[in-house]
Amino acid sequence: MPKKPTYEDLEKRVKQLELAETEAKALLQERETAQRYLDIAGVMLAAMNRQGEITLMNKKGHQILGYPEGELIGKNWFEVCLPKRNQAEIKEVFRRQMSGGFKPLEFYENTILQRSGEERIIAFHNTLLYDKDGISGVLFSGEDITKRKSTEEALKKHQKLFKEVESIGKVGGWEINVDSGEYLCTDEVYHIHEISTNSPLGVDDGINYYTPDSRLIIAAAVQQAIEQRRPFEVELEIITAKGNLRAVHSIGKPDLENRRIYGFFQDITERKQAEQKRQELEQQLSQKHKMEAVGFMAGGMAHNFNNNLSIILGNLELAQMKQQPDNEVSKYLQHAKIGVRRSRDLVQKIITYSRQGIIHKAPMHLTTIIDETLGLLQSTLPSTINLQHNYRPDSHTRLIDADPSQIQEVLINLCNNAVQAMDETGDLTISLEPVVLKQQDILEQYDCFPGPYSKLSVQDTGCGIPPDILDKIFDPFYSTKEEYEGAGMGLATVQGIVAQHGGMIKVDSVPHQGTTFEIYMPLLIDTSLEEEPFEERRAFQRGTEHILFVDDDERLATLGEQLLSALGYQISMMTDSAEALKMFTANADRVDLVITDQTMPNLTGKDLIAEVKKIRVDIPSILCTGYSSKVDEDEAAKLGISAFMMKPLDLLQLSETVRQVLDGDKEI
Asked: What is the distance of C-alpha 587 from the center of its chain?
């Protein structure tokens, strides 16, 4: 039976209970005080035991997680406050921490899950808790850094975007401290200078990359900007660390209150190159338009001019025929004829330049015409000219479709120019090689096509061509020679001939070092070649046949009648093509040949011939013209016209052509 407690025992027990109550109240007060301290903290403060159960969570923690105060106590941290995707991994880390496997990270970032299901990023700081048995749990604090992380991510994206924009635009920013000379710049400035971002780049270093002229420009611009307190804008040139020349555009603004100058630096090399290319294309197109304009002009003037020359030349021929060969007047007439022929040749050169001249193309070896031309030149060149030729071995087997006489004119023109440029002393080198042109190789003003070409180069060691006139050298009548030395049609004619053959010319010239003209002529695929002998006829050819001669210009018609009559022919002269058709209709059996001008009112020359052929299909015919855009030699042949002649008509050539047509000679 237990002993009955005494009064003293009861009094002692009461005192113990009172003491315990006092201690409990003090402890509760301390806990409440601690909780208040925890709750006024601006960060999450929490603790959990070894099982991961939350044993402590302040007010801020509940707010961050979105729970009412006290609701999380006793809940499992991992299952309630973490996204499912992270639970297994973090539980394993916590288990190892509780077993003493490794110390927890003091600072780390992790994602938590709010009651609403929204995720937040928390920066944690934690430490282990211990009791008499060892590790009892973990105490941690957490700060919501979601907004900060979002801002950091946005900042990183903007920085990345800014760098990409800098890289695409090749723009770099810079800032200079006026007092200390400190120089700050973005990575793109380093890239523009082609140096590593690890290399220091100070103000002096940057200036050292400028060309001498650019150093003066930037120094003056900065000084003026500081004095006038306004921005500056300049274009400069730098030589990069790799030795490349770059064009840059720099804009700067002074901030004198903060003793700074800041701005940007842009690489505009490609833009400058594109501008230069555009200017070159504009010059090429301008040259093409010049050629078209001259062609239009040539077509307008050639017919009338050649008609006038025909009258002059014909009358000179008649006058000379009535003079004795040794008569002094006959010599004057001969000189006048030479002048007329030169004028005729000048008109022909203009037409050739405009790509409207008549050419007689045939397959030929370019080496053959070069050798023949150099043979002619060799005897006339000064002995102080060192003439050389250099052919690629396979050049001898390559064929072009060309008019030999015109190709010879091209070569003679270029060689004569070269000799004059060298002041009759130097090296003249003729080279020939096959090449393949791509589309980007073809200059805008030429109607060439990509493919195989033969490149004929004429290189001299003369005075060269100044850059400011290089784009004018092919202009008609442009010349740097004295007035008595040439008409300025040499290179214009060369360009016209080359263009007519479907080719192209390139010029490379360095003042005081020399010039190279490169002629590109399209190669023929078929390498077969048949040589045709050429027989020159010199004497006047005469006859007695009846010729119908038609020209709407009465002076030319009369002149034709006189010239042909002088050769023994019977002539019916007409100035109206419609009347001429009536005359032929009534006398078709009496007419042996019809010679007619092309450009006439009512009925053109080719139409007149077509009508007379309906009456008598075998009638021989000759079509003459000073210039026509409607018909040429090939077109005349297709129409069944026997021969085609360009005015002014040379009497020897006319006599030969008439005789050949009447005799039925097809080789005219």
From this structure: 66
